[in-house]
Design goal:
about 400 residues; alpha/beta; two-stranded antiparallel sheet; 17 helices; about 45% helix
């Protein structure tokens, strides 16, 4: 059977050798009853493989059911998969068949199988080994003849070592492993996919399709695509709808690529390493950017405080630092090493000019402030650093005639 024919039937775009190998493996095992485990990052298109296997298997005329294990609450997952009897729990007003019972003689695709709780994993293992399952609230075992295909983006070896996934279930599911490479490792397919999504969007909304300049295409292929095909589709659709100019330059494309991607950070990116290391690195950079924002805010605050005094100085080792909490602002990473300080004499001057409490405000100060502002209490209170209500009470207490 021609590979291109299968790709056209299931909407698969790309000519990467590893992608072709995955499709070829799916065709070869379609006629068997062996379990298949599909691995790969989120968004790479793992859901196409089980459809191919089912369509070219002897079970193709029976049910195909796809289940997202990560989207079902833990309290109801066993009822969804294996069914329940009437009255087995609150709200069980009637008996209900589960997916394994409905998919008898057919195929069931368990997406995000790594999210299954351990008790459910034990029951799934029993189904795979014997074909037996028991409805929730029942004591009678039933038989099912189901081809199981599973998929996940987790690191199974890590999940097994930490006790989050059963080792025996992993090897039972992994009879036939199929790996789908991430989009960043299929650079030759990125532009083809972009064109497909752009043309689909143009056809749907009756508009001319966008085109990339050679420089923009180079940028598109150099981007790491952490969201894989799903992210690429979103970018193509947003550009198609929002851009009036149908010729896309690198400057335009850059606005649609996520700045949070490691490839856009000021470090050398790499494709190797564990998911945990990538997450740690992202957290560190977020903390660094937050610190940069605090430094920038401190600069602005001190600039306004010292506008009528000695100019703000930049020194390597500060003599006195005034800390202030300010909203986050974008700054350059080159500003990270700067500390914003004022000389010690100015620090004391700033402290002397700080707003005073009611105990610090003397009779003479109130009189002078009222005289200066011609009896306007609001203006006088502002100058004294107290509320107008407090000033009024002080005037009565000191029996000051503000007029």
């Amino acid at each position: 059977m021609e590979l291109d024919e299968i790709k056209n039937r299931f909407g698969i775009i790309g000519n990467d050798p590893r992608l072709n190998s995955a499709i070829d493996t799916a065709i070869q095992v379609a006629g068997t009853n062996l379990s298949v485990l599909i691995t790969g990052e989120s968004g790479v298109g793992k859901e196409a493989i089980p459809k191919i296997i089912h369509a070219y298997s002897p079970r193709k005329h029976n049910n195909y059911i796809a289940v997202n294990c990560g989207a079902i609450p833990e309290g109801t997952i066993e009822s969804e998969l294996f069914g329940h009897e009437k009255g087995s729990f609150t709200g069980a007003n009637e008996a209900r068949k589960g997916y394994f019972e409905v998919a008898d003689k057919g195929t069931i695709f368990l997406d995000e199988v790594g999210e299954l709780p351990l008790p459910t994993q034990a029951r799934l293992l029993r189904v795979l080994e014997t074909g037996d399952f028991i409805r929730v609230g029942s004591s009678r075992a039933q038989k099912t003849d189901v081809r199981v295909i599973a998929a996940s983006n987790i690191n199974f070896m890590h999940a097994i070592s930490t006790g989050k996934f059963r080792e025996d279930l992993y090897y039972r599911l992994n009879a036939i492993p199929i790996y789908i490479p991430p989009l960043r490792e299929r650079k030759g397919d990125i532009h083809l996919l972009f064109l497909k999504f752009a043309l689909d969007c143009a056809d749907k909304y009756r508009m001319p399709a966008v085109r990339l300049t050679p420089e923009a295409r180079t940028m598109l292929e150099a981007y790491r695509w952490p969201g894989n095909i799903r992210e690429l589709k979103n970018v193509a659709e947003r550009i198609s709808v929002l851009e009036s100019n149908r010729q896309i330059t690198p400057e335009v494309l850059a606005r649609y690529l996520s700045p949070d991607d490691p490839g856009h950070l000021p470090v050398r990116s790499c494709d190797s390493g564990t998911a945990g290391n990538i997450q740690d690195r992202d957290i560190i950079f977020k903390m660094l950017f937050q610190l940069q924002a605090e430094v920038s805010g401190l600069k602005s605050a001190l600039a306004s405080l010292t506008a009528d005094r000695t100019p703000v100085a930049h020194v390597d080792r500060p003599e006195g630092v005034i800390a202030a909490h300010t909203p986050s602002l974008p700054v350059k990473i080159s500003d990270m090493h700067d500390f914003i300080v004022v000389p010690s004499d100015d620090v004391e001057q700033v402290r002397d000019d700080a707003p005073k409490t009611i105990h610090d405000v003397s009779d003479d100060m109130i009189r002078k402030a009222l005289e200066k502002h011609e009896g306007r209490r609001k203006a006088a209170a502002a100058e004294l650093g107290i509320s107008e209500r407090t000033l009024y009470r002080k005037i009565k207490e000191l029996k000051i005639n503000d007029r």
